[in-house]
């Protein structure tokens, strides 16, 4: 594995509290390389993408589901120097 290339593929998630950032870091614990950086206004969790072409989409879907379970509406994330907003993924409605 070429570490130089993999370290350029990082997604940064900005969380509103230290606790929520720590919980997201724990969520990533067994699935990907991630770290936490606490700041004055917010905390950031960084996650390294794998070379798999679907990894970015899988990461965002995973974090959307985590947001919903954590009762967070949305968070900002940064990739390739651009900032985006990721909203919680609502579970699909079933016919009943």
Output the radius of gyration.
14 Å
Task: Quote the average pLDDT.
Answer: 88
**Name of the level-1 CATH class:** Alpha Beta
Helix and strand pattern: HEHEEHEE
Low-confidence stretches: none
Task: Report strand %.
Answer: 25-35%
**CATH architecture type:** 2-Layer Sandwich
Structure write-up:
The chain is an alpha+beta fold and 96 residues long. The chain has a single domain (3-87), classed as Alpha-Beta Plaits, CATH 3.30.70. 33% of the residues lie in helices and 30% in strands. The protein is built from three helices and five strands. Strands 2-3-1-4-5 form a five-stranded antiparallel β-sheet. A hairpin with a 4-residue loop joins strand 2 and strand 3 (43-48). The longest helix has 16 residues, at 55-70. The termini are far apart. The relative contact order is 0.20. The mean pLDDT is 88.
Summarize the structure.
Helix content is 33%, strand content 30%. The chain is of the alpha+beta class and 96 residues long.
Please give a handful of descriptors for the protein shown.
96 residues, alpha+beta, Alpha-Beta Plaits, 5-stranded antiparallel beta sheet, 5 strands, 33% helix, 30% strand, globular
